[in-house]
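can u do me a favor
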């Protein structure tokens, strides 16, 4: 031990402390998996490069490859620290916060030694607890923690930070979402440096000049990202906890993404997930990359936590589902149906109905890796030139259609068609049984100018342009009304997958399928039209009453088709709730609950080309006049 200045080891016995540093009053328990001949704790004054104190881990405290000890002393928490293992400095992989990472994109990140912070102030959660919203009632909104508010148009005080997200909570509540998914918020290295290659005659590789904006790379998994905190004195731990607490108070769950390279042991993956659930009260974790997930599936500590992964395989029915399937299957199939590809009706039936008893299913029409919703209807080809890779990066298949012109256009006919296709895409998403996920900004037509792989674009290509909220206010109002509609009608988010049977013996199956003739679905490969009827007796509202009947007519053909409307129980009539072809100013396809129009012809209805019409079957009294129902 050298230069201890009042700091001393008070326990050098073998202990199985949690890896990293654990505070216990004035004592600090340390454990580091090093497996080398020597291990030391290096304590630094804030901002200094030379250690103020060096403390050897005693040999008596070593168990296997893990060195442990307990130290005590005056004002220990004021220090920064790292470990020295066989003469080589090593950061604490289990560190809770890191110094020198406060500035986003600072090249000093890769040039200076990484020091951890010992301070960890208590936080008052004010009785906060997980919200435990069931999958069938969840509506996810996915954002980049920095890009969500970084643009000047966001009008928040703390742009690009956790605090900036908190400032947008009123907007999120008004939109109606129930869960906020955050791309990686742990302390990843955004400055891109090529992998070190042994024997490289040119020494250590230099930064490429690019930034890993998305954050899908390894990092310090136990610390929130310092550059996502606001103010001069960065306090990412406190600020992220405040964000979670504020979202919970407003009825919004928090889902964080964790990326793993596949080199992490199952124990580390499990420890990371448990940590974010316990320390930061997150409601869900989206596992990205190549995590070891087998231990998570059975972890008794995580049965109240939503865990999302590409696929969990077949899962037995559960009283409360916590595993969730999160992949591109819905997006690919529904984009193909949307643009009129052949032989897609079976995919429409499968995707709109899918809701397994053992696992939740997340549906989306756009995600980070690929076109935004607006770009999906504006570009046939990717335009990733700004990435500096000769447009060779990014997915080659986007299942998109530009509606006749590549990129921006002033042609009203094409602009109107694009808006209609957006409304169709949103109806496909929110009228399907799984859990819908909306990519942040898609509700007001956010664009990345055709870039489908903006992983390195920390600029206006990726930042949300909130000016579009005014430009595309009609689209925003459509999304808001659609979310409210979905919440109001449980037949579109049932607790279990529809059985296509009349198991209540009420005269109608829970869900039935129809062609242009009622009760006669047609599945030839050239068909692009289908009707789906929902029986309201299979959907129970919160007050115990039955839901309404619904008939959704899908026509993705470029020609109109006349649909025969199925007969309703006596006393009910069909009303038009949504019509994606309705361009009446101020409506744009929306017909609110109190203003749904009685269908003039209760037997047939002509559905326009590339159009979705939602009919609501409701009881009418003897005073029905044919005017909008009030």
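np, heres the sequence
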């Amino acid at each position: 031990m050298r230069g201890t200045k009042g700091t001393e080891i008070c326990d050098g016995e073998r202990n199985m402390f949690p890896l990293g540093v654990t505070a216990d009053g004035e004592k600090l328990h340390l454990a580091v998996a090093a497996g080398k001949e020597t291990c030391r704790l290096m304590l630094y004054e804030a901002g200094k490069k030379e250690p103020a104190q060096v403390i050897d881990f005693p040999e008596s405290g070593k168990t296997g490859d893990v060195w442990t000890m307990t130290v005590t002393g005056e004002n220990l928490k004021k220090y920064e620290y790292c470990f020295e293992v066989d003469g080589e400095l090593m950061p604490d992989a289990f560190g809770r916060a890191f110094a020198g990472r406060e500035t986003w994109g600072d090249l000093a990140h890769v040039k200076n030694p990484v020091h951890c912070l010992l301070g960890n102030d208590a936080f008052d959660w004010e009785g906060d607890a997980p919200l435990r919203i069931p999958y069938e009632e969840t509506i996810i909104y996915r954002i980049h923690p920095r890009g969500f508010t970084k643009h000047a148009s966001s009008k928040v005080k703390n742009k690009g930070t956790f605090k900036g997200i908190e400032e947008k909570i009123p907007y999120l509540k008004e939109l109606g979402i129930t869960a906020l998914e955050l791309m990686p918020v742990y302390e990843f290295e955004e400055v891109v440096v090529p992998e070190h290659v042994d024997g490289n005659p040119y020494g250590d590789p230099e930064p490429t000049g690019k930034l890993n904006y998305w954050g899908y790379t390894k990092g310090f998994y136990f610390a929130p990202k310092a550059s996502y905190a606001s103010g001069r004195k960065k306090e990412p731990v406190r600020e992220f906890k405040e964000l979670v607490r504020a979202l919970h108070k407003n009825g919004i769950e928090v889902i964080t993404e964790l990326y793993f390279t596949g080199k992490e042991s199952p124990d580390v993956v499990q420890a990371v997930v448990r940590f974010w659930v316990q320390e930061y009260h997150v409601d869900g974790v989206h596992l990205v990359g190549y995590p070891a997930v087998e231990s998570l599936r059975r972890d008794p500590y995580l049965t109240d936590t939503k865990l999302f992964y590409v696929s969990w395989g077949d899962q037995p029915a559960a009283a409360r589902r916590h595993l969730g399937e999160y992949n591109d299957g819905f997006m690919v199939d529904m984009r193909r149906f949307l643009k009129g590809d052949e032989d897609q009706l079976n995919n429409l039936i499968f995707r709109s109905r899918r809701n397994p008893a053992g696992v939740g299913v997340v549906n989306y029409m756009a995600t980070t890796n690929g076109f935004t919703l607006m770009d999906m209807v504006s570009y046939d080809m990717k335009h990733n030139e700004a990435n500096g890779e000769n447009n060779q990066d990014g997915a080659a298949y986007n299942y998109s259609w530009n509606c006749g012109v590549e990129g921006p256009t002033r042609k009203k006919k094409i602009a109107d068609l694009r808006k209609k296709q957006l409304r169709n895409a949103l109806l496909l998403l929110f009228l399907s049984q799984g859990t819908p996920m909306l990519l942040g900004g898609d509700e007001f037509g956010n664009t990345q100018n055709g870039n489908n792989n903006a992983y390195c674009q920390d600029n206006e290509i990726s930042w949300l342009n909130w000016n579009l909220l005014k430009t595309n206010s009609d689209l925003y109002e459509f999304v808001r009304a659609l979310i409210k509609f979905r919440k109001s009608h449980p037949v579109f988010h049932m607790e279990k997958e529809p059985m296509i049977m009349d198991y209540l013996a009420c005269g109608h199956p829970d869900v039935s399928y129809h062609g242009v003739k009622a009760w006669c679905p047609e599945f030839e490969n050239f068909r692009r039209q289908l009707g789906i009827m929902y029986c309201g007796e299979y959907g129970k509202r919160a007050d115990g009453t039955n839901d309404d009947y619904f008939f959704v007519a899908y026509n993705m053909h470029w020609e109109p088709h006349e649909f025969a409307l199925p007969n309703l129980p006596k006393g009910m009539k069909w009303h038009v709730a949504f019509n994606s072809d309705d361009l009446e100013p101020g409506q744009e396809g929306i017909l609110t609950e109190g203003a749904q129009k009685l269908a003039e012809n209760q037997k047939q209805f002509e559905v326009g080309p590339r159009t979705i019409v939602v009919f609501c079957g409701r009881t009418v009294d003897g005073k029905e006049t044919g005017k909008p129902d009030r």
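Residues 622-630 have pLDDT under 50 and may be disordered. hope that helps!!
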